[in-house]
Amino acid sequence: MNSRLNELDLLKTVDRDHVWHHLTPGAAASNGLPMFVRGKGLSLWDSEGNEYLDASAGGVWVTNVGYGRTEIADAVRDQLAELNFFAGSMGNKPAAAFAQKLLDKMPGLNRVYYSNSGSEANEKAFKMVRQIAHKHYEGKKYKILYRERDYHGTTIAALSATGQAERRAHFGPFVPGFVEVPHCMEYRNQYPEAADYGVKAAEAIEEVILREGADTVGAMILEPITAGGGVITPPEGYWEKVREICDKYNVLLIMDEVVCGVGRTGKWFGYQHYGIQPDIVTMAKGVASGYAAISCTVTTERVYELLQEENGDTLGFFRDISTFGGCLAGAAAGLANMKIIEDEGLIENSRLMGERLLDGLKALQSKHTIMGDVRGKGLFAGIELVVDRDSKAPVDESVAIAIAGACKQRGVLIGRTNRSLEGFNNILNFSPALTATAEQIDHIVAVVDEAIASVSATL
Asked: Which ranges of 116-196 does DSSP label H, i.e. alpha helix?
């Protein structure tokens, strides 16, 4: 026992002194961060033996089927022992089997391109758009629209398409040809005179297309429900109008399902709530629930055909590669992950427990005036914190930090908007695993109630 304690103490020291932690200022890291050592279901244990209920899916919306899934670990182990890797220029059994399984859930789409992160999946989509512009539009139709408050990844090109100023700060100059369009957040309605906010928010996109020139705009990338930018559900009529605009101006519609995909919203994919057909869908995170690194860029057959050799053009096909898109662990984990979701009815559980979570959080609004808005879909919810409901003035970021900290002290881990939007880092995020039970949902709501009350008392 003493040797194990000594090993843990040593590793915690090494972690503090040598590991560069994501999204963590050095001052916070220097005090030592919790070291998680075990997980089961929605529960995590740290090196001190403290237990937490994880309502954040691994902190970044990933662990859709929860921790400790030996069936996924076994599937990965067995595949790695049989064959671990060959470049994606050749075929393999798990990649083919997973593509078939995935496309069965995505009518109208027909090709799966593998890579290893959400940022990379979006990069692939951007490169497809740019190559299509060169091959078919004399290079003119190269611009890619993105939406204010949406996030699409951490690489320079993905940040170029991200509508969060604080995420982008200090990392420019950015890739040219990415153009922002207005958000569709009805709680902060920027078109109060409009009779139909959803249609007006979509028409604002059309205004940008016309301003830029429709012959220069090749694609638009949007999250079906904005995640880190505030858990923003689209207003009624928005997506139908967006699809109509894309068709009108021959603009490819890229749906970034990196967060929403694979059951998070109560359907297999977020866009499926709105009856629209995308041209390209990107996904990562919940695809394998964190048991292996995998992402997918899924396209229609038309997009695939636009990127093939023709008329002796030897550079005409999509000349791209992702090294770890050739690691067979990802597809093996993805197959096992989807089997769990199907066998355990987790899409329906996400819908039902999501309704319970939203109902519970909305009930707290009558007690806590700091709660300006509650929104979400499935097991994907957010609370917007405000100084007062009349002005909707956002609370300082420190208030959201304090409430998340108070939840952690009570054994529940939640998420929050983290230095993404200047003045609007006031959102608490909830994304428990799709296996969440009614008892666990009620416990999350009860802890949030206590945490908000304790912090509000100090304001």
From this structure: 118-136, 156-160, 165-168
DSSP label of 60: I
Preceding amide of 278 cis, omega within 30:
no
Q: For residue 220, what is the enclosing H or E element? A: strand 217-222
Q: Reduce the DSSP state of residue 147 to 3 states and report it.
A: strand
* Pairwise CA distance, residues 136 & 456, whole Å: 58
Secondary structure of residue 146 in the 3-state scheme: strand
- Structure tokens given for 182: 């207005």
- Alpha carbons 370 and 428: distance in angstroms, whole number: 12
**Cα separation of 273 and 265, whole Å?**
9
Decide if 232 contacts 185 (C-beta within 8 A): yes
CA dihedral 249, 252, 257, 258 (to 10 degrees): -120
How many other CB atoms sit within 10 Å of the CB of residue 432?
Answer: 29
| pLDDT (average), residues 408-427 | 95
CA dist 189 → 193, 205, 206, 208, 230 (Å)? 9, 15, 18, 18, 14
Number of alpha carbons in the 13 Å side-chain half-sphere of residue 285 = 28
Handedness of CA 247, 148, 433, 288 (dihedral sign): positive
Note the pLDDT of residue 247. Answer: 98
How far is 74 from 42, CA to CA, in rounded Å? 20
Query: What is the per-residue pLDDT across 227-272, written as a single tens digit (0 to 9) for each?
Result: 999 999 999 999 999 999 999 999 999 999 999 999 999 999 999 9
Determine the angle formed by the axes of helices 197-212 and 238-248, rounding to 10 degrees. Answer: 20
Average pLDDT across the chain, whole number = 96
C-alpha–C-alpha distance, residues 167 and 174, integer Å? 12
Cβ–Cβ < 8 Å for 433, 384: no
Sign of CA dihedral 117, 421, 186, 373: positive
- Alpha carbon distance 57, 44 (integer Å): 11
The pLDDT of residue 2 is 62
pTM value is 0.96
Percent of the chain that is helix, strand, coil (3-state, to 5): 45, 15, 40
CA nearest 254: which of 232, 273, 229, 279? 279
